[in-house]
């Protein structure tokens, strides 16, 4: 049986919860990702997959390490996330210089991304509208600063 917290401890917990960037970001991330997934559903992509395809479209081929850095993601997690996209023929691997494996979009991946972009824009517009009167550039700059650590 766990010990009860004192009223002072409970108050510190309450204040911490209300002001915790991690809790607020995780709640927002789950909510926004859920909505993006709903909007992207007609093209058969999830938000987590779209982000990978967008990075590859923008940067071209990349090593797994470089792509993981761009996505602020562990390399092992990225490898797991790439497998379904590879199985669907949306991306492929090739050997680069030395022993570096490169990942790139296939023609099917480019086509899928073209299908997804209008839906992505719709999701973006909805997310922006949900921010009310907040300065969108400030929101994005703050999130980017937090992501960079």
From TrEMBL:
InterPro entries: HTH_MarR-typ (IPR000835), MarR/SlyA-like (IPR039422), WH-like_DNA-bd_sf (IPR036388), WH_DNA-bd_sf (IPR036390). Keywords: DNA-binding. Residues 18-148 form the HTH marR-type domain. GO terms for biological process: response to stress. It holds the Pfam family MarR. Signal peptide: none annotated. One of its GO terms (molecular function) is DNA-binding transcription factor activity. This is DNA-binding MarR family transcriptional regulator.
């Amino acid at each position: 049986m766990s010990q009860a917290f004192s009223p002072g401890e409970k108050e510190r917990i309450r204040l911490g919860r209300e002001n915790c960037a991690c809790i607020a970001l995780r709640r927002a991330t789950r909510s926004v990702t859920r909505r993006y997934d709903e909007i992207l559903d007609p093209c058969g992509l999830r938000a987590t997959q779209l982000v990978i395809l967008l990075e590859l479209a923008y940067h071209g081929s990349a090593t797994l390490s470089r792509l993981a850095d761009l996505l602020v993601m562990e390399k092992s997690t990225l490898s797991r996330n790439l497998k379904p996209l590879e199985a669907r023929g949306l991306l492929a691997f090739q050997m680069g210089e030395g022993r570096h494996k490169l990942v790139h979009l296939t023609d099917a991946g480019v086509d899928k991304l073209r299908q997804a972009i209008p839906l992505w824009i719709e999701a973006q517009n909805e997310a922006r509208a949900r921010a009310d009167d907040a300065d969108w550039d400030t929101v994005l700059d703050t999130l980017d600063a937090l992501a960079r650590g």
